[in-house]
Amino acid sequence: MPSPFRYTTPPPPKSATGRTADVYAQLTDDFGIDRPSTFVVLSSAPELLTATWALMRESLIAGEGDRTGKELAALGVSEANRCPFCVDAHTMLLHATGDHALAETVARGETPADAEHARLLAWGRATRTPGAPELTPLPFPRAHAPAYIGTALSFHFINRIVSALLTESLLPGNVQRLRPVRSLVGRSVAKTVRRRPSPGASLALLDDPGPGPDWARGTTVGPAYAALRTAATAGAGLLDEADRILVRETLQGWDGAHPTLAWDGLPDRSRPGARLALLAALAPYRIRDEDVTAWREPVHTDHCLVHLVAYGAFAAVDRIESALPVHTLNN
């Protein structure tokens, strides 16, 4: 079977120890999928693996709110980010929730018949665009906002990691795009998806991350988000000051659009670190072998590459989070 990994060779999951092994165990128990490539690809940087799992677990899986609704929001995010791997995954997970008609409706690219479902899908798509009108009013109860927002932000990050570092094939031959396969895979994890585990189990894997942003205050989503912010922004150390300024200023002015092919602000390969970080932030599906080769030197391990991509990915997440109309939820 061809490897799903581009540019890195993650440690074999069966050799995992310590927190990495603990993450894999929680993934199996609470996500229902044994060592998924979306997380294995991060195992070259265990601190990123742990924090990414924590945010997804505490928001999508253990957070408040209906799992179907959160899957729709995550699907909308993945569509907005042009991540076919994650779109296919969330379509199958909608099957797992038991709403097979809804799963097939969105698989066909149609709008859900239920108005609430349609609003959640539209909200997820809109989170990519600062100031989008679909962001208000919130399409979920205020008490569920930390889980929905955490879900959206976790997949803005995961989409970018997947698009940069994995192939587009979720299953060999893209068979997940066949309706019987979508339904079968969804049913195989249905028992796990339809239960909600207790919040907080993943936080024991984190090192004193802090409370997190105000919109997640008092929930387990907050510390998980804070941990991912810390782990991902550590990748800034792989760039010089001029490149960090370029990334920061580009993201400050970003309006959510996908860059055109003639992207004037994208550095050429003489500045490979800044180029990779900006591609990871705004168009990770455009990263090419030549981009990685131009940056990679003997001192740049897989750990470094994963951190550089994560830094760019979280720069986009940070821009998206800062523009969401949610910062007064707890006031």
Question: Can you give a write-up of this model?
Answer:
It is a single chain. The model has no long low-confidence stretch (mean pLDDT 94). The chain has helices at residues 18-31, 37-40, 46-61, 67-80, 84-97, 100-107, 115-126, 145-165, 179-188, 190-193, 221-233, 241-252, 272-282, 289-295, 302-323. The chain is globular. Helix 1 (18-31) runs parallel beside helix 3 (46-61) and helix 4 (67-80) packs antiparallel against helix 5. The termini are far apart. The protein is built from 15 helices and no strands. It has 331 residues and is mostly helical.
Radius of gyration: 19 Å
Count the helices. How many?
Answer: 15
Q: Biggest β-sheet, characterized?
A: none
Could you list the spans in which at least 5 consecutive residues all have pLDDT below 50? none
N/C terminus separation: 52 Å
- Coarse structural class: mainly alpha
> What is the string of SSEs from the N terminus onward?
HHHHHHHHHHHHHHH
Helical proportion?
40-55%
Strand tally: 0
Global morphology: globular
| Mean pLDDT level | 94
How much strand content do the residues show?
Answer: under 5%
